[in-house]
Design a protein that fits this description.
Length: about 180
């Protein structure tokens, strides 16, 4: 079989290419060899130092949305914003927006072993607790397969749902709500 690829089909060049010959014939000897290494190290060090300087200058100029240096520690202590106290359902701003959490969740455990949210929002307890039931979409895989329990990709509630707070916007905002289509 002529078209089959095997190591014996590869031909070896009769003579090495010119670059290979030049490299073999121009080996520095004695101190010359160390000079070429030293020059290479010097060039690499100079280029690295220049890059570090430029990077440091860029970081000095980097400001966040609030206009403060991003390298500075956050000046707002934890708990600066107050959660709303069990308020009514909060209107959503756009289609498919995850609803915000209308109550405090400080101290709620949401771990691999336990999800405190499900104490009130599960299919079996939501009526008794007068809470919103978890959407049926949370019981489906991304392929639409129905599951008996919450889908693993929807299990950690606070990756999409956040508690409502009294926080002011960090930057000026001209966003307008979209009209809901029914």
């Amino acid at each position: 079989m002529k078209n089959r690829i095997s190591p014996s089909n590869f031909s070896k060049p009769d003579k090495p290419n010119d670059l290979h010959v030049a490299m073999k014939t121009r080996k520095p000897s004695g101190l010359g060899r160390y000079r070429s290494y030293g020059l290479s190290l010097f060039v690499m060090a100079a280029l690295s130092a220049g890059g570090l300087l430029t990077n440091a200058q860029a970081q000095d100029d980097l400001k966040g949305l609030r206009g403060i240096d991003v390298a500075e520690p956050d000046t707002l202590p934890a708990g600066t914003f107050r959660s709303t106290q069990d308020s009514e359902l909060i209107e959503r701003n756009y289609e498919q927006q995850p609803p915000v959490i209308p109550h405090k969740i400080d101290g709620y455990e949401i771990s691999l072993n336990f999800n405190r949210c499900m104490d009130c929002h599960s299919d079996t307890r939501y009526k008794e607790m007068n809470a919103t039931r978890v959407s049926q979409t949370h019981y489906k895989t991304r392929d639409g397969q129905e599951l008996a329990n919450i889908s693993p990709r929807r299990y950690f509630c606070v990756q999409c749902h956040v508690p409502q707070t009294d926080a002011r916007p960090l930057v000026e905002n001209t966003y307008q709500r979209t009209e809901r289509q029914h």
